[in-house]
Amino acid sequence: MSAPEPARIELNAVSTIADVQALVERMRAVLATRGPVTVDGHLVRRVDTAVLQALAVLTREARRQGIELVWSPPSAPLREAARLLGLDATLGFPPEVA
């Protein structure tokens, strides 16, 4: 029996507070499966603090439940916004590839 395919959470190119409710609902559904999660942030050009806070909650909850969460490479603007808010370590971004 093979491992389950990771559930995907795809972030919009412009991820704003208007997206948070749908994002939180998607995160709840994904966590309920108790399977691996991939967050795809490669398209993000702009991201609001509220979205980063929701992603931090998702990351912490996944860790607490022992759920594997991986990032499909986060964009440079997503990385920078997380760094400015001090959330880069919390989000667990993979190392940047030069």
Describe the fold and architecture.
This protein is α/β, with parallel strands linked by helices and 98 residues long. The protein has one domain (7-91): STAS domain (Transcription Regulator spoIIAA). The chain contains 4 helices and 5 strands; from the N terminus they run E-E-H-E-E-H-E-H-H. The chain has helices spanning 20-32, 49-65, 76-84, 88-91, and strands at residues 7-10, 14-15, 37-40, 46-47, 69-72. The strands form 2 sheets. The protein has a 3-stranded parallel β-sheet. Helix 1 runs parallel beside helix 2. It is globular and about 35 Å long. The termini are far apart. The model has no long low-confidence stretch (mean pLDDT 92).
List keywords for this structure.
3-stranded parallel β-sheet; 98 residues; single chain; Transcription Regulator spoIIAA; 5 strands; alpha/beta; two-stranded parallel ribbon
CATH superfamily: STAS domain
Q: What number is the mean pLDDT?
A: 92
Termini separation: 37 Å
Task: Please compute the radius of gyration using only Cα atoms.
Answer: 13 Å
Low-pLDDT segments, ≥5 res: none
Quickly count the domains.
1
Q: What percent of the residues sit in helical stretches (DSSP H or I)?
A: 40-55%
Strand line-up across the major sheet: 1-3-5
CATH architectural arrangement: 2-Layer Sandwich
Shape: globular
Class in CATH? Alpha Beta
SS-based class: alpha/beta
Say how many strands there are: 5
Order of helices and strands: EEHEEHEHH
Largest sheet: 3 strands, parallel
Distinct helical segment count: 4
- What percentage of amino acids are in beta strands? 15-25%
